[in-house]
Design brief:
The protein is of the alpha+beta class. The chain folds into three domains: 297 residues, 3-Layer(aba) Sandwich (Beta-lactamase); 83 residues, D-Ala-D-Ala carboxypeptidase, C-terminal domain (Peptidoglycan synthesis regulatory factor (PBP3), Domain 2, Sandwich); 35 residues. The radius of gyration is 39 Å and the shape is elongated.
Length: 455
């Protein structure tokens, strides 16, 4: 039942993610109001899948420890019981020596539950927890685990993502995008265990066979009140990542007042942004600013009324009417600036989709064209336009149109000329034959006796 709930939740969130349009609705406004410190940024509404802001969202870049989103998904997909014990092998630790890895202090031979290792993975970003979990799921077949990570990413539609390890150490062949990372995070948040763990600020790791009970701390400072520059009370959870090449990264979901968002910031800088003598993490700063902007400025409103006629198209062979109105296919709701009225929105049919005419019969609801919804001349949504009424076929109109086309065709004209010429020829021949018969009727044929009598 737990896995079914997990699947259904993830499916609902992925449905929204799959429908994300290719454009961002409010790039111009965000760029004007917020100074960002990252190379790749992505902000979308998790409720209806609208992309609100993006900057290089499709650019392939190093994922750092955001890789662990895929690692956790594979583990949660293939482990029914999160209380199962896992023993950390020596190789899981030694392979990370001298790599500058983020480590959780686990020891060779130490036994922890899958759940506890997931906490080390997602809170501490412990690389040895990633290798231990990968080896546990595949009985030490690391390449198989990486294949499973890539298969998961591909199945979710992350076509610009590739993994070569489960922890996120930089590799030229390991890359992702901000957009793909948002998809992975939304899917991961569908697992109750992931959502629970990633929302923790800390976790008491139970005593093991080799170590006492200890507390591990979440690297996501957006969850911590004492980090005032970064803290947001609306964060649900997520994951951080940092390497010298990937820069500072964070992927989070946030909720407030019934609105839910996903925000991903990759390759951000670390510098003193407020001149207080302390360097700030640009990933946290950007994510907080973007989410606050969305919560403060946007609301969900109906932007398309299916009863509204937005265009007219000529109808051929229509009975009683020669045009049909076009209206939005359905009521569409979109995230728009607060206070926006209908007069601020414009529905503009796309010229390349609008036919010169349609032929009767036309049925109400038939798809005819597409349109874009504009706010302040910036596209915020695309919609389908359908026929707003039925238009019956007129037989007389069909016959009349066919006759007109026939009369105007060059073939008909050529045939008419040939027929007229033929009639003239026949008429002349008939006249000649008639004249010949008349002339023949004006003479008497006499025999010899009659001729002699006349003489």
């Amino acid at each position: 039942m737990k896995r079914i709930l997990c699947f259904l939740t993830a499916a609902l969130m992925l449905t929204a993610a799959a429908s994300l349009p290719a454009h961002a609705a409010y790039n111009e406004y965000v760029d004007r109001e917020i100074e960002l410190h990252a190379d790749c940024v992505y902000l979308a509404g998790a409720d209806n899948g609208e992309v609100l802001y993006e900057k290089n969202a499709g650019k392939q870049t190093h994922p750092a420890s955001l890789t662990k989103l895929a690692t956790a998904i594979v583990v949660l997909d293939h482990c029914e019981n999160l209380n199962e014990p896992v023993t950390v092998s020596e190789s899981c630790i030694t392979e990370l020596s001298y790599t500058g890895s983020s480590l959780g202090g686990l020891k060779a031979g130490e036994t922890l539950s899958v759940y506890d290792l997931l906490c080390c993975l997602l809170l501490q970003s412990a690389n040895e927890a990633a290798t231990a979990l990968a080896d546990y799921i595949t009985d030490g077949d690391r390449p198989q685990f990486v294949r499973m990570m890539n298969e998961t990413a591909q199945a979710l539609g992350c076509t610009d993502t590739n993994f070569v390890n489960p922890h996120g150490l930089d590799d030229d062949d390991q890359y992702t995008t901000a957009r793909d990372t948002a998809t992975l995070l939304l899917h991961a948040m569908g697992y109750p265990a992931f959502a629970e763990i990633s929302a923790m600020t800390s976790y008491k790791l139970p005593a093991t066979n080799l170590q006492k009970e200890r507390t591990i701390i979440n690297t996501n400072h957006m969850l911590k009140k004492n980090y005032t520059d970064y803290y947001s009370p609306f964060i649900n959870g997520g994951k951080t990542g940092t390497t010298s090449i990937a820069g500072h990264c964070v992927a989070v979901t946030a909720s407030k007042g019934g609105y839910n968002y996903v925000c991903v910031v990759l390759n951000a800088i670390m510098e003193d942004m407020d001149n207080d003598g302390v360097d700030e993490n640009g990933a946290f700063i950007d994510a907080k600013a973007l989410l606050n902007w969305a919560f403060d400025n946007l609301e969900l409103k109906q932007i398309c009324d299916p009863d509204q006629i937005v265009a007219q198209v000529p109808v051929e062979f229509g009975s009683g009417r020669d045009t049909v109105g076009l209206s939005p296919a359905e009521a569409i709701y979109s995230l728009v600036p607060k206070g926006v009225g209908e007069g601020s929105l414009l529905i503009e049919p796309l010229a390349d989709s609008l036919p010169k005419s349609v032929k009767a019969p036309v049925k109400k609801g038939d798809a005819v064209a597409a349109a874009r919804v504009l706010y302040a001349q910036e596209e915020i949504h695309r919609i389908n336009l359908v026929a707003a009424a039925d238009v019956k076929l007129s037989v007389f109109a069909v016959v009349g149109s066919t006759a007109r086309k026939l009369l105007s065709s060059w073939i008909f004209r050529l045939c008419a000329i040939v027929a007229i010429c033929a009639l003239i020829v026949l008429f002349r021949r008939a006249r000649k034959r008639a004249a010949a018969r008349k002339n023949a009727a004006g003479y008497r044929v006499l025999n010899y006796d009659d001729f002699m009598k006349l003489k």
